[in-house]
Amino acid sequence: MTRPLAITDDGDLLDDLVRVAAAAGSQLDVAHAPALARPYWSHAPIVVVGDDLADAVAASGPPGRPKVFLATRQGGDPDSWRRCVAVGAQGMVELPEGELRLVEEFADALEPFPRAGVVVGVVGGNGGAGASLLSACLALSASRRKLRTLLVDADPLGGGIDVLLGQEEAKGARWADFVSREGRVSSAALQAALPAFGELTVLAFHRGQVEAIPPEAMRSVLEAGRRGFDLVVVDLPRHLDAAAAEALSRASSTLLLVTADVRGVLAAAQVLGEVRRHTGAVGMVLRPGVLEEAVVATSLDLPCAGHLADQPRLATALNKGDLTLIDRRSVLGHFCATLLTDLMAA
Q1: Are 45 and 109 in contact (CB under 8 A)?
Q2: Residue 268 and residue 126: Cα distance in Å, rounded?
Q3: Is the pLDDT of residue 261 over 90?
Q4: Orientation of helix 215-228 relative to helix 242-250, angle to 10°
Q5: Residue span of the signal peptide, if any (predicted)?
Q6: DSSP code at position 276
Q7: Higher model confidence: residue 309 or residue 16?
Q8: CATH match of 5-110 with 3.40.50.2300
Q9: What is the DSSP letter of 28?
Q10: With CB atoms 3.0 to 4.6 Å apart as the test, which of 165, 229, 238, 338 could cross-link to 150 if both were Cys?
């Protein structure tokens, strides 16, 4: 892969740019004069021209291209904007204050084949409604369609989405490896670090003591997921913490599982009140009970995305970590396939 190009003869500025590139997971090609930059100019994913050589670069008449930035350590110099325009840059970055922005620009330019993934949240209206099961099955159904899928466990007290998949011993990173992340996460690095099974990649918790997920870490992971995956499914806790609220705010749609009985609807109404503080894109998945769909939908003022029927022998299979019962021919598998079609179309 080609590397970002830096055109500067300023040692202090170059040190800043090397640090920025390292933060974005890359190295630099460096040209200390405009003539030395010519072989790299058109092919580099991003070009950063130092303020010290901007006039010389402009005088050399390089062809126009996107992703060119002027970098300066001389904040407040009114002539910098003239040089920015002269060199054909799309923006100016003052260092070191603008390092984070430049890291983002580097990471964007280096991202291979960025996608525009759909983020779907799943939350139970009451305990035992089956949110984790639906999350896992929805992700499995997508991966069987050859959609690149990321399944994110956002419920630290849920027992582990990897256990539900029967993959708790799988090698790879867990949430504890990401809790300190505040900046951008490369989607390629995320995929390389996490356990994967075909087209399905899973981010779960370690066993034992669980650290709360900072909202900044959740934001970084979900943004990387949107860029690198076709679908991101987030298994949310009923008691929303800051990370779950962050996930809800970034979800294209959220599914609330509701059991069709009085206590189930009352509990779901409590959860829904909290969910609606962070997103308006909520649909209901109805579990069997004594109440009719119209009664539940009116009580919660929610559209029904589908009915999730019970499946015989599922509890036994789950205790064995066996999800082979969930295929296209099963009740649950057929439901997830239909639901997935609707979610991706929307």
Answers
A1: yes
A2: 6
A3: yes
A4: 30
A5: none
A6: T
A7: 16
A8: yes
A9: -
A10: 229
CB 152 within 8 A of CB 225: yes
Residues 237, 240, 241, 242, Cα dihedral to 10°:
120
Span 44-62, mean pLDDT? 95
CA distance 308 to 257: 9
- pLDDT above 90: percentage of residues in the chain: 60
pTM of this prediction?
Answer: 0.74
Give the separation between CA 66 and CA 89, rounded to whole angstroms. 8
Q: What is the mean pLDDT of residues 277-294?
A: 94
Check residue 313 and give its pLDDT: 72
Strands 68-72 and 47-50: parallel
Q: What are phi and psi of 121, to 5 degrees?
A: -95, 145
In the chain, where the domains are located: 5-110, 118-345
Secondary structure letter of residue 285 according to DSSP:
E
Task: Looking at 50-171, list the stretches that DSSP marks H as alpha helix, in order from N- to C-terminal side.
Answer: 54-59, 79-86, 99-110, 131-144, 161-164
Counting Cβ atoms within 10 Å, is residue 277 exposed (0-12), middle (13-18) or buried (19+)?
exposed
> Among 8, 5, 18, which residue's Cα sits nearest to residue 83?
8
What fold does the segment set 118-345 form as a domain? Rossmann fold (3.40.50)
Cβ atoms of residues 300 and 268 within 8 Å: yes
